[in-house]
Amino acid sequence: MAVEILMPRLGWTMEEGMLVDWIKHDGDPVQPGDVMFTIESDKALNEVECFETGIFRIPPGSDVRGKMLPVGTLLAYILQPGEAFPGESAAAPVQAAPAPTVSAAPTVAAVPVAASAGHMPTISPRARRVAVELGVDWTALQGSGRTGRIVERDVRAAAAAAPAVQISPVARRAAGELGVDVVALAAQMPGQRITREHVERAAHPAPTPVSAPAAGDTRTPIPRLRQVIAERMAASAHTVAPVTLTTEVDATELVKLRQGLKAVGLKDGRPVPGYNDLLAKLVAEALREHPQLNARFEGDSIVTSAAVHMGFAVDTERGLFVPVVSEVSSKSVRQIAAESAALIEQVRNGTVRPDDLGGGTFTITNLGMYEIDAFTPIIALPQCAILGVGRIVAKQVVVDAEAERVAIRQMMFLSLTFDHRLVDGAPAARFLQRVKQFVEQPYLWLMN
Amino acid sequence: MRELTYTAAAREALAEEMARDPSIFVVGEGIGQRGGNFNTTTGLYDLYGPMRLRDTPIVERGFIGMCTGAAMTGTRPVVDFMFVDFILDGMGELINQVAKIQYMSSGRLKMPMVLRGSIGISGASATHHSGSYYPLFVNIPGFRVVVPSNAYDAKGLLKTALRGDDPVMFLEHKALFNQKASVPEEEYFIPFGKAAIVREGTAATVVALASMIRKVNEAADTLAKEGVNIEIIDPRTVAPLDIETILQSVHKTGRLLIVDENFGPCGIGAEIAAQVTARGFDDLDAPIQRLNGVHTPTPYSPPLEAAVVPNSAQVLQAIRDLLAE
Amino acid sequence: MADLSKEQYLALYRQMFEIRRTEEQLAKAHQAGLVHGACHTYVGEEAVATGVCAHLTAKDSVFSTHRGHGHALAKGVPPREVMAELFGRVTGCSRGRGGSMHLFSPEVGMMGTSGIVGPCILQATGAGYSAKLMNTGAVGVAFFGDGASNNGAFHEGLNLATIWDLPVIFVCENNMYATEIAFSYATRNTNMAERARSYGMSAVAVDGNDVLAVYQAADEAVRRARAGNGPTLIEGKTYRTRAHSEGMPSLGTYRTQEELDAWKARDPISTYKAKLLQSGAAAESDFEQIETAVQRLVDESFEFAKNSPYPDPSTVSNHIFSAS
Question: Which residue in chain A is spatially nearest to B254 when comparing CA positions?
């Protein structure tokens, strides 16, 4: 019997909520008490637990992450093995059992019956239990039981076929409790036996003191937002092939431009474009020329976005947020400045709409105010790249080597981290070079 | 250690307890001077005389009812019924009286009665001398039901039966009477409700009773040569039933077969399967299977009789089928 | 008339009167809904249980049948325990596990009444076997009706007791009907004593409404048993003057008003009282004293039973086995 999982009402006044992230993924076995997904409502992040035992299924094309949805919206189903989505036909019946014979010949053990696409294979209760214990996704297995049933040996074989995980029993248990993927962890530390410390370190990205905390140390539960950030960062770090390019640019002209605009803005009282707003405009122009950097993986394909939706990394008391200004290319700098200022304000006071936190195609992160020069930012998936902006500092630089002339210039480092899976080094370097040119000669974009 | 036959071991238990407790007496047809159709009392009449080795007319209901009254009034009767088929005449006494007296009297009366005799299919005994019927007794609250599979267990369990205050159906498979086992000289007791792990293994659990233990062991020997190790459990008493030991074994192996010469419907295997499904579901890697005798009256002609009882090849095949599930 | 002391005469009267008043109280309580199940009264047959049990001590065992209230009372079970049992209370003689047809009080040798007709005959034989094996001098007594005498248990029990010379008294209360089946219909030989003698045992038929006749026959039977001379069957011809079971018609389709009236005129209690008065063995004041005392006992018993608690449902599985 399919059980519908709906957007829950988590408080008397809640009318809609945002599905922040799936904790269970399509096809995962679930048991009562398992957290299925997280919901943000009323500025609180809530874990939604499961009341059923079965298979967690997200209907195709209904990944509603990041969208504000009315209470009662269908999000997912809990199905039983072999059960189809409501409205679809049930799994084809398995091959009829052969009549037992009294022949003394050993019965051939494996008569796998492939589960038809989209349907769950049958599994013995024990095999299901062992699958949970070993962290094996049994829904993809072929059973060797007489009727094609997945039995314990199939699950153990699958676990053994996965990258060999050497793990202590204590660590195995801790991994279960902390929700750490031991296979992924093992992949990061080939040849090493996973201990409880490894698991705990993986569960808490910040270094965890292994000895008793010293006087004055504090230990607090991980806030949900921190967990979400951690998971996203870890997902990015585990998924992408990041390469960082750094270049020093002469921002003297940019500084002049900014000061000029500031003078105008002070007169008419409208928001003055900041460096990030200016950079957004310039980077968007560079992206138009280098669209590979404005691309993302989506299923089997690479989607290159025509529009540039620019994310701005914003530090808040609650943690890191990345609000997005859409359609940067078609907006004036002033408009960008107005929108980014509003978004930053909303982010800081917690009123930002979920729609404004997603959909970015490129991100700018600026640590200049902390006197950082260069760094290696982490790509916000599924984007291809992120531009790290360093401080602008006056330096004595050689402006004409032949004339042996030096000058004081406003210098700045740009750090581009890109996903080498999507784009190679040279095109990325050409993109960064183009950005450098725009920064050094901001008026160039007027030519486009 | 000395070896005794199943019959001799059980007789030794009876002799020891009769020497110890003068309130024990035996009734039955031909259990006096003759010493019992199956030599269950040989030599005891000379020691204890007719009041304690009481030959009876052929009156099963009568002497069961009489022994009920005796057990209520301070003595400890042993009903030696020869064939369990015979006491079906006394079923009303057994179910309405023997099993219920302790309960109806709110525990102020005891019912220390042992009913012992042969069960099972063996030697063209035909249908009035081949019954087992223990599920009938297991179904009734108030009986202890014992089905020993070897001489050692027969002695230890009969000693326990004769010391207790509950009615005990002590059912001896006639195919086992002449089988020998090591039986120590020292006194020992085997508690009710404690299964024996006859053989340890990991591939599958086979629960078997009485004469089926030997057949399962043969099958396990064959499989062991192929590197497959079967765990064999002998519950020894089916009421009380040691389900915990079976559950522990299934936790280890994930597979369960119950081999029972007696009938399948509402039988011991059905009960074990139900309890294991209820409490050990997540340990099961395959459907629980049963191998039972054919659900038919027992025929006389040897080829027909042989077709009724699970044989070694069928036991082996049943285990192989279970492993292939 | 038997040669008894005044106390003995009056004790027999007191016992019969106690049974009668208790049964009448139970019949009323049944109508009031206090008795939850069946209620088979012994009214009209009091002389049999009284005459036999007068010879028994607590070590002697009585096994009875479905019409067993009178046997339990005569064997010494207090009326309040019988009433409480029928009311289903924890203070009942079977602690609420038995009801009208399963009265157990081993402390006084009441080894149970039974809802099945016949087993008491075999069980009394077994009590005789225990007594003989352990040489206790006790006797086993079975009370049963004419209905049981066509059951195998009757023939098997009488035969076994005879061949082994067991100290057993078989007391057949021949009230002429096995519920609705007349004894004259159920057998071609209605001579119970003759049937018993055919097994080789002593047997005697007496007027079951004459407590002194029963008393005398039982005296002989108990002496014979205790002396090791084997069993005796006593047939007491008597009549049940209430319905088979409370709530059923007292005549049914099988009895006539004339028959009932004739037996009521031979009521064992009033005829015995008249006989004692007539012979001068006791005075009216003796009876008044007894009747007042018995009525008070029955009233108190009723209050006790009515106010007793029901058993705790959590104990429902206790005592299936000896260690539980």
Answer: A126
Check whether residue A147 and residue A74 sit in a common domain: no
Verify whether the Cβ–Cβ distance B65 to C318 is below 8 Å.
no
Tracing tokens 């581009």 back to the chain, one arrives at A416
In order of their start, the domains of chain B are: 3-182 (3.40.50.970), 196-324 (3.40.50.920)
Q: Are strands C168-174 and C140-145 parallel, antiparallel or unpaired?
A: parallel
Return the percentage of chain B with pLDDT > 70, whole number: 100
The third-level CATH classification (topology) of the domain covering C6-305 is: Rossmann fold (3.40.50)
CATH number at residue A142: 4.10.320.10
Kindly report the CATH number assigned to the domain that includes residue A26: 2.40.50.100
More confidently predicted of A204 and A53:
A53
CA C287, CA C299: separation in Å to the nearest integer?
18
Shared domain for A273 and A150, answered yes or no, is: no
Q: Report the complex ipTM.
A: 0.94
Decide if A253 contacts A440 (C-beta within 8 A).
yes
Report yes or no: B318 and B258 within 8 Å, Cβ to Cβ. no
Q: What are phi and psi of C162, to 5 degrees?
A: -75, -45
What domain range is A129 assigned to? 125-161
**Which chain A residues in 90-129 lie under 8 Å from chain B, judged by CB atoms?**
100-104, 106-109, 124-129
φ, ψ for residue A14, nearest 5 deg: -70, 130
Closest by CA position to A435, among listed A242, A247, A241, A243: A247
Per-residue model confidence as pLDDT tens digits over B44-60: 999 999 999 999 999 99
Per-residue model confidence as pLDDT tens digits over C237-253: 999 999 999 988 888 88
A287 and A373 inside one domain: yes
One domain, residues A403 and A293: yes
Element (H, E) at B24: strand B24-28
Q: How many domains does chain A have?
A: 3
Residues 60-119 of C with CB under 8 A from B: 61, 63, 94-95, 97-98, 102, 104, 106-107, 111-112, 114-116, 118-119
Q: Chains C vs A: touching, with 3+ CB pairs under 8 Å?
A: no
Give domain status of residue A85, yes or no. Answer: no
User: Last residue of some domain: A79, A112, A145?
Assistant: A79
The verdict on residue A138 lying in a domain is yes
315-334 in chain A: CB under 8 A from chain B? none
Q: Are B74 and B41 in contact (CB under 8 A)?
A: no
Q: What is the pLDDT of residue A88?
A: 65
Residue A60 and residue A150 in one domain: no
Q: What tens digit of pLDDT does each residue of A314-362 get?
A: 888 878 888 999 999 888 888 898 899 889 888 888 788 777 888 899 9
Residue A32 touches chain B, beta carbons under 8 Å: no
The answer to whether residue A116 sits within a structural domain is no
Helix and strand numbers, DSSP H then E, in chain C: 12, 7
Cβ-nearest to B325 among A104, A129, A146: A146
Give the burial class of C95: count Cβ atoms within 10 A of its Cβ; 0-12 exposed, 13-18 middle, 19 or more buried. buried
Per-domain boundaries in chain C? 6-305
Give me the amino acid identity at A293.
Answer: L
The predicted pLDDT at position A68 comes to: 82
Strand bridging mode C140-145 / C61-63: parallel
Residue A430 within any structural domain of the chain: yes
Measured distance CA(C28)–CA(A114) in Å, rounded: 76
Strand order in the sheet with C140-145: C61-63, C140-145, C168-174, C232-237, C202-207
What DSSP string runs through A268-331?
Answer: H-PPPP-HHHHHHHHHHHHHHH-GGGGEEEETTEEEE-SS--EEE-EE-SS-EE--EE--GGGS
B-C C-beta contacts closer than 8 Å: 156
**Contact partners, residue C124, CB within 8 Å, separation at least 6:** B69, C61, C62, C63, C140, C141, C142, C157, C168, C169, C170
- Domain end marker among A134, A161, A188: A161
Q: Are residues A298 and A406 in the same domain?
A: yes
